[in-house]
Amino acid sequence: MNIKNKIPIHANLGLIFLEFLIGNYISIFINIGSKGSFMYYLSSYPIIAIHAMLGGLIFIISLVLVGLTFKSGKRLFYGSIIGFLGVLLAVIGGYEYLMSGLIGSFSFLMALGFLIAISGYIMALLEN
Question: Which range of residues forms the domain containing residue 88?
Fold first, then answer.
């Protein structure tokens, strides 16, 4: 797969870094209550809605990348799978973080998922 065909991976990595920055902004500067429904958080805090929508977009792109790389090289395909699983872990961690009353271990799970995703996509980009 040439560099032109790896553009979706580069784009997804850029979105993941943006998502990570927005998440850290929320953690540091936004004082959210500890209990509420998912829809309450989305409607009361626009930055959380943006964070959730961007996460959904990253999830969809990650799933599409698995399909696009299926017949490509092993490293590219496996990297895309690892990236997708990392994004999935981050999405689950983010949802559970809000629903649990902001338990920090779920925030850590979110960050871990994004690190796994980044690692998978870097592995995919290293394929010749």
Answer: 3-125
